[in-house]
Design goal:
There is one protein chain. The chain is of the alpha/beta class and about 575 residues long. Helices cover about 35% and strands about 20% of the residues. The chain has a 7-stranded mixed β-sheet with strand order 12-25-26-27-23-24-13. It has a 7-stranded mixed β-sheet with strand order 21-18-19-20-14-17-22, with no helix packed on it. α5 packs across α16 and α8 runs antiparallel to α10. It is elongated. It holds the Pfam family tRNA-synt_1c. It is found in: Cytoplasm. Its EC number is 6.1.1.17.
């Protein structure tokens, strides 16, 4: 056994020892790693008698590390395998907790309530992923309600309604009902009128500053005790658009001395001069605030369980006042923390992304640099990979971090078997080829021989990636072709068999003929150009393939001069 092979065995043994130790949160064991080590490196088998003694000291060194040091070292050596292992562990623990008091309901009914002010960023995927999963768990109902009753500060985008429904479909769910709150304004007016008749609401023309001072001092508004008839008349004037923005509001009468000032006589309706962008709602000027609109709709649509952010706890408390007036039972509430996503330089915010698009800094909602569902879809990420990652976060009240490596590991599991392999050389260096076969025939997929092989003509010259170019006189193995030795600007076939690879003497690299398919690969870090093997030119648009040693990509556009692909992940 030469020194180079010995070093390779020790290096692989360290990786497998770390995988074993991190997975089981214990010390690694020589016997436990022998199987995976030999299975992944069949050329080690001829030295099977020597290997246990060789790797014993390596395993001992690994076992001296702390748990954190083991994980950090594994992340350095094999980040992809660590990510896959952690994704599998998360999947094992990802069953959502039971919803509270489900046994008290004939049917679990839940809702996602998006504001359609733009397409969804990645964080928005968590709600439909979890609600859709709960629907499947309980054979319940999934309602999508567009909370679009703010035509000014969160102005709806007319294209967002269908875009959001399209995102939900991509994630693998079909709503049982779709509602637009802006279609239901008359319903909110009717319940406001009932509330006024009960003495539970009053019209108020105080300035925002004046009422805030009264509220913070626990003092009642001077309009609070006006008779219901006057309130009703003034509310009808609001409905008719007789007031301008800021001139009049309708307040829910609560407890003016409540310990939480945010709950004191909160606004249920306000005047907005800006017309709604939907033609069907453009004439309304008196608009319900979200807490009133959402509370009424949750009751009328039979919602049994609500999931909302931990920062919205006051919403439930405000709505409870309305429910008490009407004698309704409030739905069960699950509060959760915010989800934060790594790997992006762009803020996960609809308004921030829109600003970048308007400024021309990114090309659109599906630009690979932005953290949107449309972007991941264009890159070839399956919706199920996102759902599994989001469900794996659970429903903790703490803020949670979503690692994109988890999404990528999930997606790799979903697509690996079905994606054919091809070669792409990025910004390659050209070499003439002397000797050897006229063409190479690597398999379309190494695990499925029945799919056949590709035909890669060698021609007069080939391209190698700069990092793969051998030094003068050194050999490399061109995948599907054979061993070559560099002699100046040429690669000369040596006739060596595969043993030189098995023995670890020769690196295996990919390549492409110089007259292959020009490719532009769009990535999160910018565009990369290269040349792919000729058979890649037959892959249809929207197909996912794996460029060997580069990563998975989705074929986006077959142009006259180049093919555009979107990089998914390694």
């Amino acid at each position: 056994m030469d020194d180079e092979l010995r070093e390779r065995i020790e290096r692989e043994a360290e990786k497998h020892a770390l995988l074993n130790a991190v997975k089981h949160d214990s010390d690694a064991d020589v016997g436990a790693i022998m199987g995976p080590l030999m299975g992944e490196n069949p050329d080690f088998r001829q030295h099977g008698g020597e290997i246990p003694g060789l790797i014993g000291p390596v395993v001992a060194e690994v076992n001296q590390l702390s748990a954190g040091e083991k994980r950090d070292r594994l992340e350095d050596l094999a980040p992809e395998e660590l990510a896959e292992m952690e994704a599998e562990e998360e999947a094992d623990e990802s069953l959502l907790p039971d919803l509270p008091n489900v046994e008290e309901y004939d049917e679990v009914r839940m809702r996602a309530a998006p504001n359609p002010n733009g397409p969804w960023h990645l964080g928005h995927a968590r709600m439909p992923a979890v609600i859709g999963t709960y629907k499947e768990m309980y054979d319940g109902s999934f309602i999508v309600r567009f909370d679009d009753t703010d035509p000014e500060t969160k102005r709806p985008d007319l294209t967002a309604y269908d875009a959001i429904l399209d995102d939900i479909d991509y994630l693998g769910f079909e709503p049982d009902d779709v509602i637009r709150a802006s279609d239901r304004v008359e319903t909110y007016y009717d319940y406001a009128r009932e509330l006024i008749e009960m003495g539970g609401a009053y019209t108020c023309s105080c300035s925002g500053e004046a009422f805030s001072n009264l509220k913070n001092d626990g003092k009642p508004c001077p309009h609070r005790d006006k008779d219901p008839e006057t309130t009703r008349e003034e509310f009808e004037d609001m409905v008719e658009g007789e007031y301008s923005s800021g001139e009049m509001v309708l307040r829910v009468k609560t407890d003016i001395e409540h310990k939480n000032p945010a709950l004191r006589d909160w606004v249920a309706f306000r005047m907005i001069d800006t017309p709604h962008p939907r033609e069907e709602a453009a004439d309304y000027r008196a608009w319900p605030m979200l807490d009133f609109q959402s509370g009424v709709d949750d009751h009328l649509t039979g919602v049994t369980h609500i999931i909302r952010g931990i920062d919205l706890q006051d919403s439930a408390k405000r709505q409870q006042f309305v429910y008490d007036y009407f004698g309704w039972d409030y739905p069960e509430v699950v509060h959760w923390g915010h989800v934060q996503v790594d790997a992006y330089d762009v803020k996960m915010s609809t308004s921030s992304i829109k600003e970048l698009i308007d400024a021309g800094e990114v090309e659109g909602w599906d630009d690979p640099r932005v953290p949107t569902i449309k972007s991941l879809r264009r890159r070839g990420i399956r919706g199920q990979a996102i759902v599994d990652a989001m469900v794996g976060l659970g429903t903790s009240t703490s803020n949670v971090d979503l690692s994109m490596s988890t999404v990528y590991a999930n997606n790799r599991d979903l697509v690996d078997d079905e994606t054919d392999r091809y070669f792409l050389v990025r910004d390659g260096e050209e070499f003439a080829v002397e000797g050897g076969p006229d063409s190479a025939h690597p398999p379309l997929h190494p695990s499925f021989e029945e799919r056949g092989t590709r035909d890669i003509p060698v021609g007069d010259s080939v391209l190698l990636e700069s990092g793969d170019v051998p030094a003068e006189g050194e050999r490399v193995w061109l995948k599907g072709f054979g061993a070559v030795r560099r002699e100046g600007d040429s690669l000369v076939a040596t006739g060596d068999d595969l043993d030189v690879v098995r023995e670890g003497d020769v690196a295996v690299i990919h390549w492409a003929p110089t007259d292959g398919v020009p490719v532009r690969m769009r990535t999160m870090d910018g565009d990369v150009t290269g040349v792919a093997e000729p058979d890649f030119g037959d892959v249809p648009e929207d197909e996912l393939v794996q460029f060997e040693r580069v990563g998975f990509v989705r074929v986006d556009d077959r142009g006259d001069d180049e093919t555009v692909v979107y990089f998914a992940h390694k």
